Amino acid sequence: MTRIRLGSVGYLNARPLVHCLEHHSSTFDVRFDPPAVCAELLHAGQIDLGLIPSFEYLQRPGYRIVPDLAIGSNGPVSSVALFATRPLHHVRSIALDTSSRTSVVLLKILCRQRFGIAPAFESQAPDLAAMLARCDAALLIGNPALFAEHERLGATKFDLGEAWTTMTGLPFVWALWAGPETGPISPEVCRLLRDARDRGLAAVDEIARRFGQGDEARCATAATYLRTHIKYGLGPQFLSGLGRFHALAVEGGFAPQLRSVRFFEA
User: Out of 106-115, 128-137, 212-221, 239-248, which region has the weakest mean confidence (pLDDT)?
Assistant: First the structure.
């Protein structure tokens, strides 16, 4: 079997998907990058399969998705949030985490359709204090959002996963394993990735301990987050949520047209 160049993200939420891939080192060559970089590497052909933001799938008609695998949420996600120093209806400017693409589009949809605001947006590196020094609110994703000490900065946290599910009644899909349909992704590769997910979910306590590095509070937060907030399947409800997000993204002018979800052979 050809060794698959796999691009994952370095956030905690991806660890159950890749934790056990060390048992398949002859099959997978794994690297870790921010979500936006992972998408760029896949677009450039530097990896065969990437854990890319779900919005990116709309941009590439030649991509397919690994079945029944995703990073999603159904309600609060905890690691994608808007931190505001003013009441939401008074927010006039928002700093956007440059690590994100899906979350940026989602936030703009929510601002228009749920929060009822039309702020100015400014892309910035994910440093909450610096972002809030320039803007009324800041979008953060991943570990920085999960562990942000926002109270110290006088900010309130608004969970975007919760806002989406409250607005639509549907789960949200944040990231997908995707790659070119002409690439080397076989049914056996898809099976190994699902098996790695299942083994990773059974090892959540170990993953949390490694992540926490002796900090008991951090370990507990990590374990609760992985067990409660993040979902790793792509069943009918999640596909409905993905379709609704894509439709709203097109309606809002963030993508040119809808495309059907196409899977690799399982």
Answer: 212-221
Backbone angles phi, psi at 223, to 5 degrees: -65, -45
SS3 content of the chain, % helix, strand, coil (to 5): 45, 25, 30
The order of strands in the sheet holding 137-141 is: 120-124, 93-97, 137-141, 80-84, 156-159
- Determine which helix (DSSP H) or strand (DSSP E) holds 70, and give its type and residue range: strand 63-73
Q: What is the H or E stretch that residue 180 is in? A: strand 172-180
Measured in Å, how far apart are the chain's first and last C-alpha atoms?
A: 16
Closest listed residue to residue 99, CA positions, set 3, 11, 17, 187: 11
Residue from 18, 19, 52 nearest 35 by CA? 52
Residue 80 has pLDDT above 80, yes or no: yes
* Alpha helices per DSSP H over the chain: 15-18, 35-43, 102-110, 128-134, 142-146, 160-168, 187-202, 204-212, 216-224, 236-251
Predicted pLDDT of residue 36:
83
- Tell me the domains of the chain and their CATH numbers: 4-72+171-251 (3.40.190.10), 80-168 (3.40.190.10)
